[in-house]
Amino acid sequence: MIASGDLSIGTAQQGGQIAIRFRDSGHGIPEEVLQRIFEPFFTTKKDRGTGLGLSISYRIMQEHGGWIDVESVEGKGSTFTVKVPVRALA
Fold it and tell me: Among residues 78, 1, 67, which one has the least CA distance to residue 34?
């Protein structure tokens, strides 16, 4: 979301995982970009950023048995869902 909009965050437990959903009312992500957002060094920001944020986040989630998924429709916003396994505290 560039200037304004709505952001909602929700959580749910699904089996042995916790799901955290981030939904925004931004401009959405074009399909050709959406397919590449988790690639290292991929960025649409020509003058700033390294394109590492989402790829590092994705790798961290995988290393901990979780994952990140994204759904987006241009003009309607995006939803990122992060799922992590539930682990008992020692």
Answer: 78
In a domain, 1, yes or no: no
57 in any annotated domain: yes
| Mean pLDDT per 10-residue section of the chain, whose length is 90 residues | 87 92 94 93 86 93 93 94 84
Q: What is the DSSP string of the chain?
A: --S---EEEEEEEETTEEEEEEEE-S----HHHHTTTTSTT--S-TTS--S-HHHHHHHHHHHTT-EEEEEEETTTEEEEEEEEE-----
Spatial CA neighbour of 83 closest among 24, 35, 11: 11
**Which residue segment(s) compose the domain that 38 sits in?**
13-85
The two tokens of residue 25 are 């009312």
